[in-house]
Amino acid sequence: MKLHPTCSGAFLQVYPEPQTMDTMCGGWTETRDADKETQWICDQVRSLVQGKTSKIYQEYRAITYRTQFVGGTNYLFKVCVGGPKYIHVQVFQALPCDGGYLELTGVQEDKTQDDPLEPISN
Description:
- The protein is mainly β.
- The chain has 2 helices and 7 strands, in the order βββααββββ.
- The longest helix is centred in the first third of the chain and has 9 residues.
């Protein structure tokens, strides 16, 4: 994933990752290790996640993620929120031509390090 800075200081995804058979449009990728770019996306929705769960997280660190390309990008993150506690966070990022906005689309609490990342349906 490549990010492009905007005038406001935000970043927009401008070049999707190369697509293979497991990342075709509409399908979810395999689970990958989070990096600084995916952490940035998680950080942008942190206050929304805390509002949805009614919790303040002292630790909020993306561990792994999956993506799905569908007229934008869905992200599914495993986030460590302290010790052995994890949550799953799902975020939609619009295409740059649509504004590149981020939207929190789901949160699941009470997850463990070993729980698989499965899409959240609300």
